[in-house]
Fold:
Amino acid sequence: MITGMERLVAAINGEKSDRIPVFCNLLDQGADELGIASLQEYYANGEHVAEAQLRMREKYGYDNVWSLFYVGKEAELLGCEKITFSKGGPPNVEDYVIKNYDDIVNLEIPDDISALPAFEENLKCLNILKREVGGKQPICAYLTSGITLPAILMGMDKWLELLLMGPTDIRDLLIAKCSEFFQKEIDAFRKAGADVLVYSQPFGSTDIMPMRLIKELTLPSMKMDIEPGGVGGLVYYCGSSPFNNVIDMMIKELGIGVFYLSPKDDIAEAKKIINGRALTCGVINDIKLVSWSREEIRAEVKRMCEAGMPGGKFLFGTLVMPYDIPKQNIRAMLEAAYEYGSY
Amino acid sequence: MQHKIIQDYNEAVYDTDRDKALEVINRALADGITPEQIVFDVIIPAMEAMMASISKDFDANLAQHFMAAQIASEVTEEMISRFQNPPESLGTIVIGTSVGDMHTLGKRIVSGCLRSMMIDVVDLGVNVKPETFVDKAVEINAPVIAISSMMMHTATSENGCLRVREILKERGLEDKIKLVVGGAPFRWDNDLYKTVGADAWADNGISAGEMIKKFVLESRS
Structure:
């Protein structure tokens, strides 16, 4: 039987398998899958996350598993001591690591991420995923870019203030430190067996930054992030912000080979821009999956597949699926993707 | 003259260049424009021009929204300290993020935008309980409660906007206080504001400022 990894590799190479690869990003739903009432309890143990990821993939039949717990985990690796958990959605960073500019000067980037106690459960999870489905199903990891990470270390508004108004020496120091963290983090995830490295880069979308600043600030920081380890397995993702108008630049300047679009991006336009040079991932508006009918879901998936499949090199995906999406809607979306995504 | 100042100022804001924007203001002051004229004839019309552009699909981004609100509120605060007589406030509104939500950027943009238009803002911070929103609005006679939620579960939570609506209903305040929401989930589902019981939503911080100003002015009439 064909595996998710074979589908993904075929798509990257522009070859046809039985169908397009389908990535479904279920995270918090894992607690429910295991019958664990509290997300805090669920995320406290890497075995829980691995077990739930394996079970959900098996149950629904999509083509990826996640080693991501929640985005605030990266802040914990750098000293964040307080995360707010709630019942129905992803945990939030409550205690910012950076409270003033002295904290930026004093911020220390650990030499070996994989040796940190806060990474222990991630490693446990990755080891299980690698043992159970390594080489058969793509194992995804989530990494925040150097220019974006400060947003979860000091808050988005404080970071925008520093980024746009300076002092520039402190701004550049923080970007350099966060980039160093990224380089070490991606190395740790690669060594632990992650294949698909989702590079979260909202500051690479013109919904967030003007093109001038993307060229002046984002692009140089991306080179710092990426060049030491290369683009192998790297997926460009702007955290749901659209980015069709930077794709060409990212291919030419950095050689990125996979683009995980925003639901707001025009898939056919993205394919035209990419022109066979990379894998295009069409992404559904999964907030609407909460309320859409089965017919509406099927119509949207069909539209996306028709826009993305001609010429191959296409993957169907979701954002981080909200907890409120009814299970029958998840099934309806996946069944439609398997049906309309067949070759 | 005034048109040229507004144009130069907004160009600097669109370019996210705070130093250049402040230079335009300082040059105008040096040319004899009064602090009152700066606020009422430059900053407010410039903000209104930006709101109009955004409502006509001008492709502004988050950095521009942030800088527009930041610079406008900064300049307004500075100019007001130099006014001959303190300006009249159009009203005061209450803002905060819903329970469980720690994201501060949206309300900061909205607040900066409103302050530059002579609307005072009581910022209740993050992770605000529904009762706190209503109690404070009643205490200061606010015609608007603005709730920012960046995540689906904090937008739709029973302890968020939904509960604020219930309390307004229970206390017979629905005619007096409008409920405005904003944040990422509302951008992905434009009908979600109805589901959570809000009167209105806005796509971005600057448009939220425009929406709230309209409600504040209506409450005065």
